Amino acid sequence: MSGSTRSSEGLDPRRRKILFRAWHRGMREMDLIMGRFADAQIGALTEAELDEFERLIEVLDRDLLSWVTGEAEVPENYDSDVFRRLKAFHQHDKPIHV
Question: Which Pfam families does the annotation name (predicted)?
């Protein structure tokens, strides 16, 4: 079970693949962060934003988690609009497993 609240029905193959990959990263915390963002945004992302989101999916879990939580500085080449939206989507005032 992925935890996804969004059906992939009606999505094109690329968006379906990205949605699946966002929920199946390896580290449960990153599944929740990336997957919830994808559930909410996958249908509205432009092709360029999908490219950027796919780049973020390729980042190691521990690195991406440290960027999202602010424990490490985001490398300039990943500090994109999509990353900032992902980070803003994740609320730090409550546990991510809620």
Answer: Sdh5 (PF03937)
**Helical spans, DSSP H, in the chain:** 13-23, 28-41, 47-57, 61-69, 81-89
Can you tell me the mean pLDDT for 71-80?
Answer: 96
Alpha carbons 51 and 18: distance in angstroms, whole number: 10
**Whole-number Å distance between alpha carbons of 35 and 72:** 21
| C-alpha to C-alpha distance for 95 and 98, rounded to whole angstroms | 6
Q: What is the DSSP letter of 92?
A: T
Side chain identity at 26, as an amino acid letter? G
Measure Cα distances from 17 to 2, 47, 74 in Å: 13, 14, 25
pLDDT digits (tens, 9 = 90+) for 6-56: 777 778 899 999 999 999 998 999 999 999 999 999 999 999 999 999 999
CB of 58 closer than 8 Å to CB of 81: no
Rounded Cα distance, 35 and 18, in Å: 9
Amino acid, single-letter form, for residue 85: R
